[in-house]
């Protein structure tokens, strides 16, 4: 297994994650009001964003450099970020990635905070996406409550 350190990226260093995305031709970007997390193996080899939403976070921008894929970088990075942020986390993914996220404790959901529900509907106009959640939100855990969080 690759020797790896996963840490929160200080705001002034956010450009380092932006550079990683650009170097590899990724269309991903850092979230303006979110936390950026990176995985380092001497240099940055992966990153993700956690953006506050409702009473939890929206996970976006997960990227691992091609040479480090298949070495558990994404799994370890997600686990580090979510251990430091014990709240519900939502993400949108290609349905082919559902099993990967499922192994990390995510499950499909139709209960999303309104800000994410409208965004997902917009995104689904051009590509198939699945909404997944890890952790319980108050709306999904309260019997009889049928509203989104």
TrEMBL record:
Cited Pfam families: Acetyltransf_7
Every N-acetyltransferase domain range: 1-130
InterPro entries the UniProt entry points to: Acyl_CoA_acyltransferase, GNAT_dom
Protein name: GNAT family N-acetyltransferase
Organism this protein belongs to: Pseudomonas farsensis
């Amino acid at each position: 297994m690759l020797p790896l350190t996963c840490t929160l990226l200080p705001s002034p260093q956010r450009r380092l994650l932006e550079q990683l995305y650009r170097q590899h031709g990724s269309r991903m970007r850092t979230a303006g009001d979110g936390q950026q997390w990176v995985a380092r193996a001497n240099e940055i080899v992966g990153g993700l964003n956690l953006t506050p939403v409702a009473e939890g976070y929206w996970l976006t921008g997960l990227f691992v450099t091609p040479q480090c894929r298949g070495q558990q970088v994404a799994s370890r990075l997600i686990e580090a970020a979510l251990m430091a942020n014990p709240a519900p986390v939502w993400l949108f993914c290609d349905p082919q990635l559902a099993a990967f996220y499922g192994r990390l404790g995510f499950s499909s959901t139709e209960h999303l905070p309104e800000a994410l529900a409208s965004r997902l509907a917009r995104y689904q106009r051009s590509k198939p996406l699945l909404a997944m959640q890890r952790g319980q939100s108050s709306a999904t855990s309260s019997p009889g409550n049928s509203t989104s969080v």
